[in-house]
Amino acid sequence: MDVGCGLADFYSYLIANGVNIQYTGIDIVPELIDSAKIRHPNIDLQFRDLQEEPFPKSSFDYVVCSQVFNLGLGLDKNETLVKDMLHNMYHTARYGVAVDFLTSYVDFRQDHLHYYEPGEIFSYAKQLTRRVTLRHDYPLFEFCIYLYPSFEGWSGK
Length: 157
Known about the structure:
Layout lengths: L1 E2 L5 H8 L7 E4 L2 H10 L4 E4 L12 E6 L11 H16 E10 L15 H11 L2 E5 L6 E7 L9
Parallel strand pairs: 1-2, 1-4, 2-3, 4-5
Antiparallel strand pairs: 5-7, 6-7
Helix pairs in contact: 3-4
């Protein structure tokens, strides 16, 4: 599942690179979903708010979410939203979740954007699962957090 799929460009990328996938994209902007359905009439695209209408546990193998949480919402709204969404995405995924964020480790900032502390996102993710990876090594001003379910025999969450 692609959370915040917009025009389903991630689907286009996957297909162009030979990835055979059963794709579901969701977005809270109905106009984007309508446009994506015109471009991709044969895939599952839904106008859906994951906070208001979560999927059942383990509905999808993987959940990805890219470039969704960049706009600043003011006060602590970004962190509250992200924690809720990470929780929902993690419980929706059978095998893993990948979400990217703008990092606070930048040499410039734009007022309309929100920059996340990687350690804070990592700490919250560790409350959901013991298996968390934080990637902060690619050349953009971003980082990506990956959440995987604990495996059988490993006590904990």
